[in-house]
Amino acid sequence: MLGTVLSVAAAAAASAAGYQTMAPQGQWYGRSFSGLNGKTKKIALTYDDGPNDPYTPQLMDVLAKHNVRATFFLIGRFVSRRPNIVGDLAKAGHVLGNHTYTHPPLIFQTSVQVRIQLTSCRQAIADAVGEHSNLFRPPYGGRRPAVFRIARELGFEPVMWNAIGYDWLDTTTPQRIEHNVTKSIRGGDVVVLHDGGHKHLGTDRSKTVSATDLLISRYKTDGYEFVTIPELMKG
User: Catalytic annotation on 49?
Assistant: First the structure.
Protein backbone atom coordinates (compact mmCIF):
# COMPACT_ATOMS: atom_id res chain seq x y z
CA MET A 1 0.00 0.00 0.00
CA LEU A 2 2.77 2.42 0.93
CA GLY A 3 4.52 1.67 -2.33
CA THR A 4 1.39 2.50 -4.28
CA VAL A 5 0.95 5.78 -2.41
CA LEU A 6 4.56 6.74 -3.04
CA SER A 7 4.26 5.87 -6.71
CA VAL A 8 1.14 8.01 -7.07
CA ALA A 9 2.80 10.89 -5.23
CA ALA A 10 5.90 10.62 -7.42
CA ALA A 11 3.80 10.59 -10.59
CA ALA A 12 1.84 13.63 -9.40
CA ALA A 13 5.05 15.49 -8.58
CA ALA A 14 6.52 14.66 -11.98
CA SER A 15 3.35 15.82 -13.68
CA ALA A 16 3.36 19.10 -11.76
CA ALA A 17 7.04 19.66 -12.53
CA GLY A 18 6.40 19.02 -16.21
CA TYR A 19 3.51 21.47 -16.19
CA GLN A 20 5.68 24.16 -14.63
CA THR A 21 8.21 23.94 -17.48
CA MET A 22 5.61 25.36 -19.87
CA ALA A 23 2.99 27.12 -17.68
CA PRO A 24 3.04 30.84 -18.53
CA GLN A 25 2.30 31.89 -14.96
CA GLY A 26 4.20 29.10 -13.20
CA GLN A 27 6.84 30.30 -10.72
CA TRP A 28 8.50 27.05 -9.63
CA TYR A 29 11.48 27.49 -11.92
CA GLY A 30 12.09 31.15 -11.27
CA ARG A 31 10.16 34.37 -10.95
CA SER A 32 8.76 35.93 -14.11
CA PHE A 33 6.38 38.76 -14.95
CA SER A 34 3.03 37.79 -16.47
CA GLY A 35 0.74 40.70 -15.62
CA LEU A 36 -0.93 42.44 -12.70
CA ASN A 37 -3.99 40.23 -12.13
CA GLY A 38 -6.76 42.76 -12.66
CA LYS A 39 -5.13 45.55 -10.67
CA THR A 40 -5.20 48.14 -13.47
CA LYS A 41 -7.01 48.90 -16.71
CA LYS A 42 -3.82 48.58 -18.71
CA ILE A 43 -2.96 45.99 -21.35
CA ALA A 44 0.46 45.20 -22.80
CA LEU A 45 0.45 43.83 -26.33
CA THR A 46 3.50 41.67 -27.03
CA TYR A 47 4.59 40.05 -30.28
CA ASP A 48 6.97 37.11 -30.73
CA ASP A 49 9.12 35.73 -33.55
CA GLY A 50 9.82 38.87 -35.58
CA PRO A 51 11.04 40.87 -37.28
CA ASN A 52 9.11 39.62 -40.29
CA ASP A 53 8.29 41.50 -43.45
CA PRO A 54 5.82 42.58 -44.63
CA TYR A 55 3.78 41.87 -41.50
CA THR A 56 5.84 43.61 -38.82
CA PRO A 57 5.69 46.90 -40.79
CA GLN A 58 1.95 46.39 -41.36
CA LEU A 59 1.49 45.81 -37.65
CA MET A 60 3.45 48.98 -36.92
CA ASP A 61 1.01 50.90 -39.13
CA VAL A 62 -1.96 49.59 -37.12
CA LEU A 63 -0.28 50.43 -33.82
CA ALA A 64 0.61 53.91 -35.07
CA LYS A 65 -2.99 54.49 -36.18
CA HIS A 66 -4.10 53.91 -32.59
CA ASN A 67 -1.05 55.64 -31.03
CA VAL A 68 -0.12 52.42 -29.23
CA ARG A 69 3.35 51.19 -28.28
CA ALA A 70 3.96 47.45 -27.95
CA THR A 71 6.74 45.08 -26.93
CA PHE A 72 8.41 42.86 -29.54
CA PHE A 73 10.35 39.74 -28.55
CA LEU A 74 12.73 39.27 -31.45
CA ILE A 75 14.59 36.27 -32.86
CA GLY A 76 18.23 37.21 -33.27
CA ARG A 77 18.87 35.53 -36.61
CA PHE A 78 15.96 37.47 -38.13
CA VAL A 79 17.20 40.69 -36.53
CA SER A 80 20.51 40.16 -38.31
CA ARG A 81 18.68 39.75 -41.63
CA ARG A 82 16.18 42.61 -41.19
CA PRO A 83 17.93 45.25 -39.06
CA ASN A 84 16.05 48.03 -40.87
CA ILE A 85 12.74 46.77 -39.48
CA VAL A 86 14.21 46.59 -35.99
CA GLY A 87 15.44 50.15 -36.38
CA ASP A 88 11.96 51.26 -37.40
CA LEU A 89 10.47 49.55 -34.34
CA ALA A 90 12.87 51.34 -32.03
CA LYS A 91 12.31 54.72 -33.70
CA ALA A 92 8.55 54.29 -33.30
CA GLY A 93 8.96 53.84 -29.53
CA HIS A 94 8.31 50.12 -29.30
CA VAL A 95 10.24 48.05 -26.76
CA LEU A 96 12.49 45.28 -28.06
CA GLY A 97 12.98 42.06 -26.11
CA ASN A 98 15.14 38.95 -26.45
CA HIS A 99 13.53 35.76 -27.81
CA THR A 100 16.85 33.90 -28.34
CA TYR A 101 18.89 33.72 -31.51
CA THR A 102 17.36 30.66 -33.23
CA HIS A 103 14.23 29.89 -31.12
CA PRO A 104 15.18 26.48 -29.68
CA PRO A 105 13.23 24.85 -26.82
CA LEU A 106 15.49 25.90 -23.94
CA ILE A 107 14.30 22.99 -21.78
CA PHE A 108 16.61 20.76 -23.83
CA GLN A 109 19.56 23.15 -24.17
CA THR A 110 22.69 22.97 -22.04
CA SER A 111 23.58 25.91 -19.82
CA VAL A 112 26.28 26.93 -22.30
CA GLN A 113 23.79 26.82 -25.17
CA VAL A 114 21.28 28.92 -23.22
CA ARG A 115 23.93 31.58 -22.63
CA ILE A 116 24.89 31.60 -26.30
CA GLN A 117 21.26 31.95 -27.40
CA LEU A 118 20.65 34.94 -25.14
CA THR A 119 23.93 36.74 -25.70
CA SER A 120 23.83 36.22 -29.47
CA CYS A 121 20.33 37.68 -29.70
CA ARG A 122 21.31 40.60 -27.48
CA GLN A 123 24.29 41.31 -29.71
CA ALA A 124 22.14 41.18 -32.86
CA ILE A 125 19.73 43.74 -31.39
CA ALA A 126 22.63 45.92 -30.23
CA ASP A 127 24.17 45.78 -33.70
CA ALA A 128 20.85 46.89 -35.19
CA VAL A 129 19.79 49.66 -32.79
CA GLY A 130 22.22 49.84 -29.87
CA GLU A 131 21.40 48.73 -26.34
CA HIS A 132 17.71 48.19 -25.70
CA SER A 133 15.58 46.54 -23.02
CA ASN A 134 16.61 43.74 -20.68
CA LEU A 135 13.41 41.77 -21.31
CA PHE A 136 13.54 38.08 -22.23
CA ARG A 137 10.87 35.56 -23.21
CA PRO A 138 11.76 31.86 -23.68
CA PRO A 139 10.56 30.19 -26.90
CA TYR A 140 7.30 28.31 -26.34
CA GLY A 141 7.46 29.62 -22.77
CA GLY A 142 9.60 26.57 -21.98
CA ARG A 143 12.16 26.66 -19.20
CA ARG A 144 13.87 24.62 -16.54
CA PRO A 145 15.42 25.96 -13.31
CA ALA A 146 18.71 26.94 -14.96
CA VAL A 147 17.12 29.02 -17.74
CA PHE A 148 15.82 31.92 -15.66
CA ARG A 149 18.88 31.75 -13.39
CA ILE A 150 21.16 32.20 -16.39
CA ALA A 151 18.92 34.90 -17.81
CA ARG A 152 19.17 36.90 -14.59
CA GLU A 153 22.93 36.38 -14.39
CA LEU A 154 23.06 38.01 -17.83
CA GLY A 155 20.88 40.89 -16.64
CA PHE A 156 17.58 39.81 -18.22
CA GLU A 157 14.09 40.02 -16.76
CA PRO A 158 11.88 37.05 -17.80
CA VAL A 159 8.46 37.97 -19.20
CA MET A 160 5.64 35.52 -19.81
CA TRP A 161 1.92 36.20 -20.41
CA ASN A 162 -1.61 35.60 -19.18
CA ALA A 163 -3.60 36.02 -22.43
CA ILE A 164 -2.86 34.36 -25.77
CA GLY A 165 -4.43 34.57 -29.22
CA TYR A 166 -3.31 31.22 -30.71
CA ASP A 167 -2.75 33.22 -33.87
CA TRP A 168 -0.34 30.69 -35.37
CA LEU A 169 -3.13 28.18 -36.11
CA ASP A 170 -3.82 27.89 -39.85
CA THR A 171 -7.58 27.62 -39.31
CA THR A 172 -7.93 30.75 -37.22
CA THR A 173 -9.50 34.11 -38.13
CA PRO A 174 -8.97 37.64 -36.80
CA GLN A 175 -12.25 37.33 -34.91
CA ARG A 176 -11.19 34.03 -33.36
CA ILE A 177 -7.84 35.50 -32.30
CA GLU A 178 -9.68 38.41 -30.68
CA HIS A 179 -12.05 36.00 -28.92
CA ASN A 180 -9.16 33.89 -27.60
CA VAL A 181 -7.58 36.97 -26.05
CA THR A 182 -10.75 38.46 -24.61
CA LYS A 183 -11.46 35.28 -22.64
CA SER A 184 -8.50 36.13 -20.39
CA ILE A 185 -8.57 39.92 -20.17
CA ARG A 186 -9.05 41.16 -16.60
CA GLY A 187 -6.87 44.27 -16.60
CA GLY A 188 -3.11 44.42 -16.15
CA ASP A 189 -2.75 41.76 -18.82
CA VAL A 190 0.18 40.62 -20.95
CA VAL A 191 -1.13 39.50 -24.34
CA VAL A 192 1.06 37.32 -26.55
CA LEU A 193 0.62 37.38 -30.33
CA HIS A 194 3.03 36.75 -33.20
CA ASP A 195 4.30 39.06 -35.93
CA GLY A 196 6.46 36.30 -37.38
CA GLY A 197 7.10 32.56 -37.43
CA HIS A 198 10.21 31.00 -35.95
CA LYS A 199 10.93 28.72 -38.90
CA HIS A 200 11.45 31.32 -41.62
CA LEU A 201 10.87 34.90 -42.69
CA GLY A 202 7.67 35.73 -44.53
CA THR A 203 5.26 33.74 -42.35
CA ASP A 204 1.75 35.07 -43.00
CA ARG A 205 0.60 37.08 -39.98
CA SER A 206 -2.07 39.15 -41.74
CA LYS A 207 -4.72 37.74 -39.39
CA THR A 208 -2.72 38.95 -36.39
CA VAL A 209 -2.51 42.41 -37.93
CA SER A 210 -6.28 42.51 -38.35
CA ALA A 211 -6.90 41.06 -34.88
CA THR A 212 -4.68 43.72 -33.34
CA ASP A 213 -6.86 46.42 -34.89
CA LEU A 214 -9.97 44.72 -33.49
CA LEU A 215 -8.50 44.33 -30.00
CA ILE A 216 -7.27 47.90 -29.68
CA SER A 217 -10.54 49.33 -30.94
CA ARG A 218 -12.56 47.18 -28.55
CA TYR A 219 -10.60 47.82 -25.38
CA LYS A 220 -9.92 51.50 -25.95
CA THR A 221 -13.69 51.93 -26.23
CA ASP A 222 -13.97 50.15 -22.86
CA GLY A 223 -11.51 52.55 -21.25
CA TYR A 224 -8.36 50.44 -21.29
CA GLU A 225 -4.90 51.85 -21.93
CA PHE A 226 -2.32 50.02 -24.03
CA VAL A 227 1.24 50.16 -22.68
CA THR A 228 4.63 48.52 -23.06
CA ILE A 229 5.88 45.84 -20.67
CA PRO A 230 8.17 48.25 -18.76
CA GLU A 231 5.22 50.60 -18.33
CA LEU A 232 2.97 47.79 -17.10
CA MET A 233 5.61 46.65 -14.64
CA LYS A 234 5.37 50.05 -12.97
CA GLY A 235 1.66 49.42 -12.27
Answer: no
